[in-house]
Design a protein that fits this description.
The structure is a homodimer of 261-residue chains. The first copy, chain A, has a single domain, classed as 3-Layer(aba) Sandwich (Aminopeptidase). In chain A, 36% of the residues lie in helices and 16% in strands. Chain A is built from six helices and eleven strands. Chain A has a seven-stranded mixed β-sheet, sandwiched between helices. The first copy, chain A, has a two-stranded antiparallel ribbon with strand order 4-5. Chain A is globular and about 60 Å long. The N and C termini of chain A lie far apart (60 Å). Chains A and B meet through α3 and α5 of A and α3 and α5 of B.
Chain lengths: 261, 261
């Protein structure tokens, strides 16, 4: 890193004191390649493609953060340098191949470089998220964790019809409530644990940050052609914010019912 | 904290580069009450009792760290100020009562004080442990996590006959291997998930640090009258180090067998 680079934009926390029940996370918010890591030998077109980030996810996460008065923890570095939703020993943490693209700078990554990215990106991002969650726990306000992702409409040449994927780690309860509300309210093609599920190793953030505390959680995957511009993002946020609120009410009511019996 | 206090002794890492397969953790190593937090209104006798720390646990953890060439991550502050094996929203994180003892300084703890202890003790301890684990993962050497505790022979006036408690979080495999080896090798009264189990909320460190990565793990609970002096500790370490080594071999052999079928 040169002296003029300044600190790495690993993590940003917006609306930190947001008083709502949710805490929003966006691990794949950015396709920034800081000069400290270079461009991994990728063409410009690869660096703006879905392999480098989740297009539209940060804008949607911000709109949800505003609508729900929720803190938002987002990353500022491309997932190809370090995929924050993967543990350091997963091949996908610093993927040598992503969908149809080779990532030359990750092809023969040294142990030192793997350790450096873990130290400089993975650890500070998850420490900041852990800090935000722990403060809510200490205050007696356990947050509901919502991670916001987008996926490509065409994957390995195949069209995906699902529009909203609703994914959970160990505890399905909140995700199931989100599915029920989303099906009733949005008109989107909604599916549980599709196009990915925990079995694909895509719930690392939830597993590391939500499950150990027994926090209600969901990972939202929105097909990125539905987040193509500001108007589309605003419309999607206006659909999804009420879904999340209603899903929480539904879950709380169910828990209360169980407690009463 | 006064200017002369220096940094809080929250966490110490010994033998950081230890090349063995284990990583040892000792959350209840110390009965130190830094002046920044005071003595919580406790008498001197309460501050040396088992409620303030796990007597003998650090000495045993050090001996095991040496015998197994394992990194050791230990805490330097009494569990009554913050119990690092509890999440911030658990009553037991800053317990107002521990066994027969009232803890006056925790009786009416403010939200600010709860946040301060979480920020100054819980978060940096677990960040340091996470860092040590993540580096091992990045290097392709996932560690087996062993937490070392001791328990009082008399609890609420009742004698406990168990001498070695072997406790696990979600994955029982390594703990069951430790039990089998300990029963065959030590002559101790050994029990699985006794005198406590995950259902009692005592596996927070494992749940936060080992389970999300699928790491093999065990929590060892040794009755503290068996750790009364240096000779007793050395003898216990000499019994337990071979148990841990053999348990790991047993688990690896079993995994290999499964893989071959």
């Amino acid at each position: 890193m040169t002296a003029t680079d300044g600190p790495l934009p690993v993590v940003t926390i917006e609306n930190r004191e947001g008083g709502g029940p949710f805490l929003i996370v966006c691990e794949h918010a950015s396709n920034h390649f800081p000069s400290a890591f270079g461009t991994l030998g990728l063409s410009k077109s690869a660096r703006v493609a879905h392999i480098a980030w989740d297009p539209g996810a940060l804008a949607l996460a911000r709109a949800l953060s505003g609508a729900l008065d929720a803190p938002l923890v987002s990353a500022g570095i491309s997932r190809l340098i370090y995929d924050l939703n993967r543990p350091p020993h997963a091949p996908g943490a610093m993927a040598a191949k992503s969908e149809l693209f080779d990532v030359p700078g990750n092809a023969e990554i040294s142990g030192n470089e793997r350790a450096r990215r873990t130290e400089q990106i993975y650890l500070p991002f998850h420490a900041a998220l852990h800090d935000a969650i722990a403060h809510r726990l200490a205050a007696g306000r356990p947050p509901v964790i919502v991670t916001v992702h987008s996926f490509t409409p065409v994957y390995f040449g195949k069209r995906r019809d699902v529009e909203l994927g609703i994914i959970h780690d160990a505890d399905p309860e909140f995700a199931e409530a989100v599915l029920a509300e989303a099906e009733g309210r949005t008109g989107l093609i909604c599916r549980l644990n599709d196009p990915y599920s925990a079995a694909d190793g895509v719930t690392h953030t939830l597993r590391l940050q939500a499950t150990p505390y027994g926090l209600a959680h969901v990972m939202l995957e929105i097909r990125n052609d539905l987040l193509g511009d500001g108007a589309a993002v605003a419309e999607m946020a206006a659909r999804l914010a009420p879904v999340l609120r209603a899903a929480l009410s539904r879950m709380v009511a169910k828990t209360g019912e169980r407690a009463a019996h």
